[in-house]
Design goal:
The protein is globular, with a radius of gyration of 12 Å. The chain is mostly helical. The longest helix is centred in the middle third of the chain and has 14 residues. The protein is 45% helix and 0% strand.
């Protein structure tokens, strides 16, 4: 399975460092439950995990996930399971 990199993301307006309340080394329940869509590494990880879950391997699919989580309708969705459902519903 392909593992896409941060450079494969379409948009370049992400924070490359963690937000003050986030720690990239913390991998506890909070990080498993939430997605910070402002942070480049979290978006990349979310997109890759969605592709893995659905056996998708193309870069265009990786970027489609990224586009979907940036839709205005997804702006208030931070919980990982809700964001996955949102992408699944809006996938075309």
């Amino acid at each position: 399975m392909a593992e896409f990199k941060e450079d494969d993301l379409l948009y370049d307006d992400y924070e490359t460092t963690t937000t003050p309340s986030d720690d990239p080394k913390y991998i506890g329940k909070k990080d498993k439950d939430r997605v910070n869509k402002k942070e480049r590494y979290e978006v990349k990880d979310f997109c890759n995990s969605f592709l893995k879950k659905h056996n998708l391997e193309k870069k265009v699919s990786f970027q489609q996930v990224e586009k979907l989580i940036r839709l205005p309708e997804a702006s208030n969705i931070v919980m990982r399971d809700e964001l996955i459902k949102f992408v699944e519903i809006h996938w075309k």
